Amino acid sequence: MTSKNTLSSSAAVFISVSSMIGAGIFMKTSTLNKLSHNYLPSLITLFFIFLLSILAFSYVLIKIIPSQSGNGGFMEWSKVNCPPRLNTAFVNFIRYFYHPPSLVLFSIYGVLSLKGDEKMSTPLLIMFALLITITVMFMNLVSFKTAYRVQLALWTMVLIPLITLPILGIIWPGEGSTTLEKPSGLDGAGKWMIMISGLPSLLFIFDGFYNLASLKDKMQSSKQLVRSLCISFAIVTFLYLYVIIGFSVGSPGNAEYRNFSAFKGHPYLLEFFEILISLAAFMTLNSMSLSNISQLTAMDHMYGFQDIKRLRSLCFYKGKPSNPEFEHRFIHWIHLMMHTIFWFLVVGIMASLSQKFNGKGMEDVLDALADIISSFIFGILACIIIGNLIKQPKTSILFKYCAISSGVVIVVALSYLFITYVSGTFGYEGADRFSNGLKLFIMCIFILGSVAPQFKEFLNRKFLRKRSYTLYPYDKYKGSIITFK
User: Fold this and answer.
1) pTM across the whole model
2) CA geometry: angle 437, 441, 444, nearest 5 deg
């Protein structure tokens, strides 16, 4: 860090890379291998094509990011480039369906990785993960510098399995699995179907980049932010290919590092690596805590959320605050924590239902949340790109090409995810009906929940002639982009 309030270029790249690597590099390796039917050429081809799309996306960001002035991240881009009502839905999604579930997702992933093959009851798992989440969030509230140092320490430890495990897999490969779990439904159409079916997983791989965009006040300039993101994209792509190739060679059939011959007869060595891998999820949890509070604070400054104002009036006496900056962060921390606890309960209930009806439990729910949240975030980015093209038709041909190509990839991934869940709900090609039905239910809840407050406000004004303060004070933002007119 160059000074007390700014990040150096290397520190910015580090935060971006550690946000994208995290638990995803160990979670999605096995998933992508399964989708490719253990056929490495199709997997490498997918990464190569997606890398071209990411490079095109990086060029688009170069044009869009300079318009960002605060820590709102891509929500500032949405405010500038998207229609008013669509932007409102995006604000709702980020507040209610991105910030809290993402913290729940990675805290539980970390606990599951820590336990390895041992089973833990859902209530105990939820309580343990919640305790870790509260601790990490409190640390980020108290001191950004402390949270950054913890992130650096976690990254140092995560580098050990990140570099070592692929080498162990190549030198001491295990035996191929005789009972391979083949993908069902549309995913099982063939080896090259991964060119489409693997896109949601790849979106999850790269979706941590916007954590850095929510720390704009820590950047020296917009150019530093863009440069750091582009460098981190290249580093993350190389690391993922390195891990996937090493795991595929070391464990033919399922790319599972626990099957490496190096761990046979060495259970303590395996436990050591399991602990280090669990730290990857906690590293992502810490990076999201770093950015989520900053982004929520910036969004509140833009829109003046009424529920946060009511919460502030309950927690503090009226009058001029003695430390307004800390009080603002504390209120947003409380608000985020309350919604996070609620989502812990929701995820616990869904995991219990999944365990009862199809025997998959928590992992199935977490995988669904990971893919859906990542796809929705990139869906917002696709809308931002399209909106920017419409508002600025006289852009260069290169920008148009990059915007269209990166936008098409995102739209295809979202469409495939929806079609897969719908067809799977009806049992297409042996797909798990309950699992796909649950995923489709989560997706619909995200969509309806994002538009419901705004729709309620519209009905109140249209039919009841009643002023609703569901999200934003109408008088203050009369005629603005936030309310229905």
Assistant:
1) 0.80
2) 140
Q: Hunting for tokens 């915007």 — which residue is that?
A: 403
Give me the half-sphere count of Cα atoms (radius 13 Å) on the Cβ side of residue 233. Answer: 24
Task: Find, among 485, 454, 471, the residue nearest to 86 by Cα.
Answer: 454
Q: How far apart (Å, rounded) are the C-alpha atoms in residues 156 and 152?
A: 6
* Cα–Cα distance for residue pair 23/430, rounded to 1 Å: 29
Rounded to whole angstroms, the Cα distance separating 228 from 41 reads: 30
> Over the stretch 260-311, which tens digit does the pLDDT of each residue have?
888 888 888 888 888 888 888 888 888 888 778 888 888 888 888 888 888 8
The 10s digit of each residue's pLDDT in 61-91 is 777 766 656 555 667 778 888 888 888 888 8
Listed residue (476, 98, 27) closest to 296, CA to CA: 98
Q: Catalogue all structural domains in the chain, each as residue range(s) with its CATH number.
A: 9-454 (1.20.1740.10)
Six token digits for residue 1: 């860090």
Distance CA(241)–CA(297), nearest Å, equals 36
Q: Please name the amino acid found at residue 92.
A: N
| Residue given tokens 């399964």 in the structure block | 34
